[in-house]
Amino acid sequence: MDTQGIGAKSTMDHLITSSDPEHPANHICTLCRNFYTLGWVTGTGGGVSIKHGEHIFIAPSGVQKELMQPSNMFVMEYASRNYLRKPPVLKPSACTPLFLAAFDRGAGSCIHTHSQWAVLVTLLVEKDALIQDKAASDACFEIEQIEQIKGIPRGRGKQGMLGYFDRLKVPIIENTAHEEDLTQSLEAAMERYPDTYAVLVRRHGVYVWGDNVQKAKTQAESLDYIFRLAVEMRRLDLPWIR
């Protein structure tokens, strides 16, 4: 049962009120502004969530990311999936069930962007599959011998980061008309690629998660660098796999 309602403001706003810039309600706003400048969350697209103790902080739907405020945050109790705080005039993020899928696998933060480079990579992989007469739904993005791969962990429960000679694999799922309908495909990709910290959505964007918000951010940055590099490599007719 949701506890946010008439008269609840005075008892629930403490969840998003803090002078600490690292508090999830403040941190999400900072990330949204930074991601906006990168072109990752234009037109209110994309989303950010942070798990803090037993609470999940989620940026709302329909708010311009560069104008995000702590008062816009939704706060959910992780165990019950009930909202403890719901801004009265805003809608919960359609990304929420996908964020929860990442949290259920031990993530501390999940980021969803509409990066153009992520979208282009999914289209290039789709094109390759068609040329090779393979099902695009079975393909994933693969690249190796790129230094920035070192910014991606080896996998859940594994020590260290990928190395220069390791092959990075990022699964790709098909887009759907509604964001929440991606959940089952995302969970299936997580099961099929248990070491992945990201899932690309064809013609849409990417979901990236990490053990905490700092790791999720740096992994999202590393992956976007790699996606952009991959697009430029293809333009120059350079292979992703040597």
Q: How many strands, which pairing sense, and closed or not: the largest β-sheet?
A: 9 strands, mixed
Approximate strand percentage = 15-25%
Q: Spatial order of the strands in the main sheet? A: 4-3-2-1-5-9-8-7-6
Listing every helix as H and every strand as E from the N terminus to the C terminus, the arrangement reads: HHEEEEHEHEEHEEH
Q: In percent, how helical is the residue content?
A: 25-40%
- The termini sit apart by 54 Å
Unreliable segments of 5+ consecutive residues: 1-8
Shape verdict? globular
**What is the number of E strands?**
9
Q: How would you state the average pLDDT, rounded?
A: 94
Query: With helices defined by DSSP (H or I, 4 residues minimum), what is the helix count?
Result: 6
Q: Find the structural class using helix and strand composition.
A: alpha+beta
Radius of gyration: 18 Å
Describe the structure.
The chain is α+β, with helices and mostly antiparallel strands and about 240 residues long. The protein has 6 helices and 9 strands, in the order ααββββαβαββαββα. It has helices spanning about 10, 25-35, 95-105, 115-130, 185-190, 215-235; strands spanning about 45-50, 55-60, 75, 80-85, 110-115, 140-145, 165-175, 200, 205-210. A 9-stranded mixed sheet has the order 4-3-2-1-5-9-8-7-6, sandwiched between helices. α4 packs across α6 (about 215-235). It is globular. Residues about 1-10 have low confidence and may be disordered.
